[in-house]
Amino acid sequence: MFKIDNEENQARTGKLKTMHGVVKTPFFMPIATKGTAKQVSHEELEYIGSNAIIANAFVLSLKPGMEVIKKFKNIHNFIKWDKTIFTDSGGFQILSKSFLHKADDKGVYFKNPFDGSKKFFSPEDIIKIEEEIGGDVIMALDYVPHYGNSKDYIADCTRITHLWAERCIKVHNKNRKQLIFGICQGGTFKDLREKSAEFINNLDFDGVALGGLGIGEGRTLMFDAVNQSIKKISKNKTRYLMGVGSPEDIIKAVSLGVDCFDSRFPTMNARHGGIFTKIGKINIEKACYKYDESPLDENCKCSVCKKFSKAYIHHLYRTYEPIRDRYGNIHNLFFIQNLMEEIKKSIEENRFEKFKKEFLKDYKINEEKDSKFSYS
Amino acid sequence: MFKIDNEENQARTGKLKTMHGVVKTPFFMPIATKGTAKQVSHEELEYIGSNAIIANAFVLSLKPGMEVIKKFKNIHNFIKWDKTIFTDSGGFQILSKSFLHKADDKGVYFKNPFDGSKKFFSPEDIIKIEEEIGGDVIMALDYVPHYGNSKDYIADCTRITHLWAERCIKVHNKNRKQLIFGICQGGTFKDLREKSAEFINNLDFDGVALGGLGIGEGRTLMFDAVNQSIKKISKNKTRYLMGVGSPEDIIKAVSLGVDCFDSRFPTMNARHGGIFTKIGKINIEKACYKYDESPLDENCKCSVCKKFSKAYIHHLYRTYEPIRDRYGNIHNLFFIQNLMEEIKKSIEENRFEKFKKEFLKDYKINEEKDSKFSYS
User: Fold this and answer.
1) Residue B67, burial from CB neighbour count under 10 angstroms (0-12, 13-18, 19+)
2) Is the dihedral of CA B248, B249, B254, B259 positive or negative?
3) Is the Cβ pair A323, B79 closer than 8 Å?
4) Phi, psi at residue A8, to the nearest 5°?
5) Mind listing the pLDDT tens digit for each residue in A161-215?
6) Segment 79-118 of chain A within 8 Å of chain B by CB
7) Which residue in A11, B71, B301, B375 has its CB near the most CB atoms, within 10 A?
């Protein structure tokens, strides 16, 4: 259940109560597709302060498979994480050539990337899987079109998404105490976005997610779509911008009223040396850090910054030591978590707009790349 | 400095005092070639109970390079590990096609694997590098022949090793308070092994390492060589069996009087699913563990066994989650460290032979593979 605590213009703080505790909003979820964050242990996530992670029901149903999870009763017990778990439905995997075979009104035909076999999943199948997996918040099945598809095509994906959403909500067993979120689509077309947000908002979902964004449309169109959607979503529903993101996008989205985020961005960046700092993203692989005795970010209190120098982390990157990903991921996830804490605090103290302005003034962004930017 | 505390037949416990603390012997060092253990953080090594690690002076001199280490004053400060560090000299890299160009009486001509350039290192160069790196125990340069080389060839490598050892000891600045260990060679030839151990033992080294073993000669010949060498090494010198090893080889080597070990074996195995347990090495990737709710080893108190099931670790292995290596490494290193603790305790209590017998009775070994076994 969701409750708003503070508001400043569109931005708000609140509490999302799930079977496994209370998650203060706005919050960011590290991705744990197969039941673990990338290179980061549960203990480290707790140290970072993450109260929720997101796994992927579709992927888990293939491996380890439902029989294993049922033997362990639920995902919490299988992976030994006792805080909130979201499960994504597999809609996003429709974008992936290694998964999608075809999709129609009935559901989606996936290729199993582990063994090449074809599997059909109806929206009802996905909900049953998500119920058996036992996550705290389950996502409806949506049909995510690629950016650049025709308006007709995207309108049809949106129609199918709505059809599936109705079927998901109809079949979901409320007795299980799992929350269920719907996902709206509509590409970057104002009329489709508004219609979709309104449609999903009018169903009996506990939250509304904004899907199909951050996939190559660039930041201007993305924020237009966020804005158009949120205007149609009731205030009392949790708003979840899927797949986003970067420090600068998160802070902007919060100012538009978003409560919830998940993204590969922090760990994907760390894999290539991209490290978040107060003054923007740096690339730790650059030669200028070879002798640098200072921590990754002077202001950061993460375990990596408290112990190591830029020079040592640079050395681990330059020599391809696999532990580099762990250290980069811990730092970047800690940076985002810390940002969420500062965002919440500033909204509570009614100085979020000021905080946002100051943060974005310091945090340098490569504007040129922004228009082509994609999270997928 | 080294002091023996307890003896039971050839096995002994003792204390090796270095600039960075006391290491109780016999002990096992995790490998930290480039300044980090593989996937395992310093904090985790401390949790495991490792009091010493071994880095590679030759590799560190190439990357990050001596200028970086000198800027940080020493390796301890660069990598932020304040316990004992051994540095290997580069002798072992002579075995590697990606490093060796040629070697002669003067020294070794290495290819820099990072940029292809050729570099000459004399024994004096290596000692200077090891002194500047600032490890607590530095190793002399040795010439490691391949198993299967002719006796004449191995005799010549041994002659060169002795020549280099004399030059290393001559040039080493004792004021630095670093301990220095010599390395004996001799392949699997009794006369060469004995001669080499005697020669190295008679130089002013603080410890004597047994080099060029576990490289394909099989366990019978390896233990023959260990036995032949140790008989020629003074009791009061630390004996270091380089590159070994497995639980069963460590316990046998201790019974012959070895004090010190390092090996890739625990982490190399974990990378391929090989997990040490009381009843022998299991392969966690096997289908039989898919539903297994028990920990990797019922008797183990490591952080992985305390939290996770075999089924979850199996799942991480089967889905190639990179964190699998960390969990496998932590468990295997903890297993070895725990074995060292049990070995020390049983020698102190004069029941090592009994403990060894019981351990080896439970710990199943694939004898067939033993004859071809290699640690390199």
Assistant:
1) exposed
2) negative
3) no
4) -140, 110
5) 999 999 999 999 877 799 999 999 999 999 999 999 999 999 999 999 999 999 9
6) 79-80
7) A11
- Quick check: A371 pLDDT over 70? no
Q: Nearest CA to B272 among B262, B260, B281?
A: B281
Interchain pair A41, B326: CB under 8 A: yes
Contact at 8 Å (CB) between B241 and B226?
Answer: yes
**Residue range(s) of every CATH 3.20.20.105 domain in chain B:** 2-263
Is residue A175 classed exposed, middle or buried when 0-12, 13-18 and 19+ CB atoms within 10 A define those classes? exposed
- pLDDT given for residue B100 in this prediction: 83
Pick B291's closest partner by Cβ from A38, A68, A319.
A68
Active site residue A88: yes
- Secondary-structure class of domain A2-263 per CATH: alpha beta
Q: CB distance A321–B68 less than 8 Å? A: no
Q: Is 90 exceeded by the pLDDT of residue B9?
A: yes
Beta bridge partners of B29: B262
Contacts of B365 (CB under 8 A, 6+ apart): B248, B280
- Calpha distance A148→A150 (Å, rounded): 6
CA distance A326 to chain B (A): 8
Which residues on chain A are in Cβ contact (under 8 Å) with B322? Answer: 38-39, 322, 325
Per cent of chain B over pLDDT 70 is 98
Distance from CA of A81 to the nearest CA of B (A): 10
